[in-house]
Design a protein that fits this description.
about 190 residues, mainly alpha
Length: about 190
């Protein structure tokens, strides 16, 4: 029964930390959330036992001690942490290196069976799998750095490492293209 009274008071008047009517009392002459007349007091976010006594439209005044306690019950402010700039730069490096790797691999014979298409070449399937793996790693890092910004440096090191691997693969693939052209011209 008390829980229902609390939920009713919160749903009609709003939580104590909302700041408007319902966080204490409406000013004299103001209408409450339901459009009630002048001088009525509104209570919201009350604890068990007090919610049963404070109903919507009740003309009894709330005690100053209760109002002070309700206004002090606000949830603590959590500072918004910013992502480290080095980590953001490493995200760009990974995405650019992965795109270069995909661009230089497309249409060539693929040695990794997981990335091979039906004809043994790197195609749509390989692009999808590489994008999924890279995107999953970056999404996991985003959640990690959002919760613990101090881990951004470690994530940046990992990203620059991945970017180096992708860049090496792209350089290797572009070297293969030149070697294939030279072999074709030699024949």
């Amino acid at each position: 029964m008390r829980l229902m009274a609390i939920l009713l008071a919160i749903s009609v008047a709003g939580p104590a930390w909302a700041g408007g009517p319902g966080a204490g009392e409406a000013a004299a002459g103001e209408a409450g959330p339901g459009g009630a007349g002048a001088g009525e007091r509104w209570a919201g976010g009350l604890v068990a036992g007090e919610a049963a006594a404070a109903t919507v439209g009740a003309s009894a005044a709330l005690s100053p001690a209760l109002i002070k306690r309700l206004r002090g019950a606000a949830p603590p402010e959590r500072p918004v942490a910013r992502s480290p700039p080095l980590w953001k730069a490493s995200l760009v490096a990974v995405v650019v290196a992965a795109a270069a790797d995909v661009a230089t691999s497309y249409g060539k014979r693929e040695l990794n069976p997981a990335l091979q298409g039906g004809n043994g070449r790197f195609g749509g399937r390989g692009i999808a799998i590489k994008s999924l793996v890279t995107g999953s790693a970056l999404a996991g890092q985003w959640f990690l750095v959002r919760k613990a910004p101090e881990s951004g440096t470690y994530a940046a090191v990992a990203n620059f490492g991945m970017a180096g691997v992708f860049t090496a693969a792209a350089v290797h693939n572009s070297g293969n293209r030149r070697a294939a052209r030279a072999a074709t011209l030699a024949q």
